[in-house]
């Protein structure tokens, strides 16, 4: 299998937002971000370098979720557990792929996504 240059790197940043209107207006006006809605509960953005999104809801552990990418999602989830992390949301599907959420040994919340199986 060829190495993927994105494997195990920061790939996506996700923020919580109770209302997408104000964040779209703010980040669009200040930083020129483009937005794509994926139903009523998710809005993705692109800033020209990094992609991210806004999930409907209030702040979660500081409100920012860093999302890593892994070629082999199951192996990465197993490695998180073996290294002392806690899986808080097991692998689930979403439009565009699959992912899981975890906390590291000191409580930082992150997620890892991968392509559909």
Structural notes for this entry:
By secondary structure, the chain is α+β, with helices and mostly antiparallel strands. The chain has one domain: 2,3-Dihydroxybiphenyl 1,2-Dioxygenase, domain 1 (Roll), CATH 3.10.180.10. About 20% of the residues lie in helices and about 45% in strands. It is built from two helices and eight strands, in the order E-H-E-E-E-E-H-E-E-E. The chain has an eight-stranded mixed β-sheet with strand order 2-3-4-1-5-8-7-6, with helices on one face. A hairpin with a 2-residue loop joins strand 6 and strand 7. The longest helix has 12 residues. The two termini are about 15 Å apart. About 15% of the residues are buried.
Which ranges are low-confidence, i.e. pLDDT below 50, for 5 or more consecutive residues? none
Strand percentage lies at: 35-45%
Question: What name goes with the CATH superfamily?
Answer: 2,3-Dihydroxybiphenyl 1,2-Dioxygenase, domain 1
Estimate nothing, just give the exact number of structural domains. 1
CATH architecture: Roll
Structural class: alpha+beta
Overall strand count: 8
Global outline:
globular
Helix and strand topology:
Layout: E1 10-17, H1 20-31, E2 34-37, E3 42-46, E4 51-56, E5 64-69, H2 73-82, E6 86-94, E7 97-103, E8 109-114
Parallel strand pairs: 1-4, 5-8
Antiparallel strand pairs: 1-5, 2-3, 3-4, 6-7, 7-8
